[in-house]
Amino acid sequence: MKSAAPFNLLIAGMLVAGCAAQKSVFNPASAAAVPPSVIVTPENSPAGKVLSYNSGARFVVLNFPNGQMPGMEQKLFLYRNGLKVAEVQITGPQMNGNIVADLIAGGARAGDDVRDQ
Question: Distance (Å, rounded) from C-alpha 105 to C-alpha 72?
Fold first, then answer.
């Protein structure tokens, strides 16, 4: 039993010395110097709703919030329940927040979402 005591004392001393050497200090200045890996940019593309759809003439009347009116000849996409259902091209005329677009492909319904992507 006497030969195990010095060995246990040596192990305990190594553990205490190892724990004492592992002190870490948080430096906020060094953390602030690291650039962020994610860049978030706001979405500026027009987003609106289909007000009405004329199936015979294949055009839609779209409504956009103030400041988000798309330009003439711009192509946009219609989404229903998150799925792309049609492609339209802005043709005009425009009145207040409403504008007319020709249906290029697919089908439309009132209430479909209109987005640039």
Answer: 18
